[in-house]
Amino acid sequence: MKNALYLLVLFFSFSVFAQTTESFRSAKMGGNRDIRVKLPASYEKNTEKKYPLILVLDSEFLFDPFAGNLSYANYWDDVPEVILVGVNQNKNNEREDDSDTDPKTGLPGGKGAAFFEFIGTELLPYLETKYRVAPFKVIAGLDLTAGFLNTYLYKDTPIFQGYISFSPELYTNMETRIPQRLAAAKEPIFYYHATAEGDLKKMRTRINALNENMKAVKNELVNYKFEEFKGGSHYSIPTNGIPSALYQFFEVYRPISSIEYQEKIAPLKEGFVVYLNKKYEMIEKALGIKMNVRINDFKAIETAIIKNEAWNEYEELAQISGQQYEKTMLYDYHMGNYWEKRKEIKRAIKCYQDGFTKQEIAGLTKDMMMNKAEDLKALLPKKEKLKGGKAKDVVTEEAPAEETPATDTPVEETPTEEKKPE
């Protein structure tokens, strides 16, 4: 046990520090800015896959906490792999200059306006060109930078779909303008912000006012969450808030849990495969991630099918497994169950036998498939069995009286081939 924990710590330590730092030349700011990039572990292997982007301001102290939490959640497949990018802002008062604002308008001004343009018109296009970035992009910051990141909501078409705002130092009228912008959102927006019991009083008052104003927003496209951490300080907010925000934003991505099953699937009487399809369509639509159905999610839906005796849905399940896991025996397993429950024993046997020649997957083995076929053969009438136990189709029509009566020897037909989905 101790060795396993040690290896797990090494794994997360490697994940946190497997990153690069590069100097980015900005024409908007008239100088260079260091950025840190951490690519997903599967990035080089999955050359066609795109990944959500999380852009972290205040990279010097927020990048590693994000990297650690992401590595841990990735290990359990609770959140997707992402491209994590941090912007360093700790030299020569950079974070103060970057967050400069016009006090009258509440918009970025001076060097803050240059930094705003640097993010939107230089850095993001560069990252999207160099890396395989999915449409879902998140920005995160603390106090000054948390206030700044909210200004991207003021654009008619926000360039970020997710906002993580830890104890934001809100700009002019932000406690009313943010709810107004979110209420008018025409595309899905994820918004998380947090304060703490020991947070700075002047900031906490306005943050709570923002939360009160958000209670009037009824836009179904907005996924909003606010937290106030009891006993926490200003600087402890990110350590509590990072995992909470990640699990909020990527909730739809998570495998079917026991809670999801009990609350959303168990009450259904049918449409279990429809539910599964919608879940993965939502992952693609909300996060820009196209992925195969997880094996455990197949098992959850199969449990519901069996419980409700919705046997026809096995065929629908096979349409998915045949497309996504075509080299494995999963399709044949699903179709075998479909025919077996319909009492089409010979067809079920053929499916299980076909599965024997394919790759094993997630508990499905060659021995299991052959055992299922052999068990079903025992259910066939004796006259349908040949030496070796193989079943053959039989001619069941009576011969005309003037012809020679049929013998007990069965006549072989070619079994109907099951057509896989294209």
Automatic annotation (TrEMBL):
Q: Where is the signal peptide?
A: 1-18
Q: Residues annotated as region Disordered?
A: 385-422
Q: Which Pfam families does this one have? A: Esterase
Keyword Signal in the entry? The reply is yes
List the InterPro entries hit by this protein, alphabetically. Answer: AB_hydrolase_fold, Esterase-like, Mycobacterial_A85_antigen, TPR-like_helical_dom_sf
Keywords, A to Z, come to: Coiled coil, Signal
Bias class Basic and acidic residues marks the residues at 385-395
Q: Which residues form a coiled coil?
A: 193-227
PANTHER family (alphabetical): ENTEROCHELIN ESTERASE-RELATED, FERRI-BACILLIBACTIN ESTERASE BESA
This one is known as Esterase
